[in-house]
């Protein structure tokens, strides 16, 4: 009898985990908002074109980063791993040496309203370039299925590396990867 209960518990856990993962895949999807497989992100080799608003409601097209090396991070105010890595992203964003060589850090708040993000940034004292993707349109274009997800993009718009989960963006290994592209 214990073996049956154990199998039932594992099965129920599997179902809950499947539902949870399916909800995360809702982060990505085609324009029709259908979830896609997490493997879709592997097919993405070029950064999509987009235009998003920043916290001042100014439109920021991806073309404004043409010729730069870009680190674009997708996050949300409710995500613990995102919150944990934002301070190190802020340090990287303020690095004057990297900026002078044509490096840009962009964060995209996925699914949060302008007010929520503004309040969050102010409350946490973050100094970052934040773009708003309230409807997750650009998040879907990048095939993001979980957050945080970050892309390192070269000067030609090619996605060089994808990072899933929380990172320390001040780590020497990551900085070396960025500097090789500059």
Provide an overview of this structure.
This protein is α/β, with parallel strands linked by helices and about 180 residues long. It has one domain: Glutaredoxin (3-Layer(aba) Sandwich), CATH 3.40.30. Helices cover about 35% and strands about 20% of the residues. It contains 6 helices and 7 strands; from the N terminus they run αβββααβαβαββα. The chain has helices at about 1-25, 80-95, 95-100, 115-125, 135-140, 170-180, and strands at about 50-55, 60, 70-75, 105-110, 130-135, 150-155, 160-165.
Outline the fold blueprint.
Elements: H1 2-25, E1 51-54, E2 59-61, E3 69-75, H2 80-93, H3 96-100, E4 103-110, H4 114-123, E5 130-133, H5 137-141, E6 149-153, E7 159-164, H6 172-181
Parallel strand pairs: 3-4, 4-5
Antiparallel strand pairs: 1-2, 1-5, 3-6, 6-7
Task: Tell me the radius of gyration.
Answer: 18 Å
Q: How do the helices and strands follow one another from N- to C-terminus? A: HEEEHHEHEHEEH
Share of helix, binned: 25-40%
Question: What's the CATH first level?
Answer: Alpha Beta
The order of strands across the largest sheet is 2-1-5-4-3-6-7
- How many strand elements? 7
First-last Cα distance:
63 Å
* Share of residues in strands: 15-25%
| Number of helical segments with 4 or more residues | 6
User: Can you tell me the residue ranges where pLDDT is under 50 for at least 5 consecutive residues?
Assistant: 10-32
CATH topology: Glutaredoxin
CATH homologous superfamily title: Glutaredoxin
Main sheet overview: 7 strands, mixed
In short:
The chain is of the alpha/beta class. The protein has helices at 2-25, 80-93, 96-100, 114-123, 137-141, 172-181; strands at 51-54, 59-61, 69-75, 103-110, 130-133, 149-153, 159-164. The chain has a single domain (2-181), classed as Glutaredoxin (3-Layer(aba) Sandwich), CATH 3.40.30.
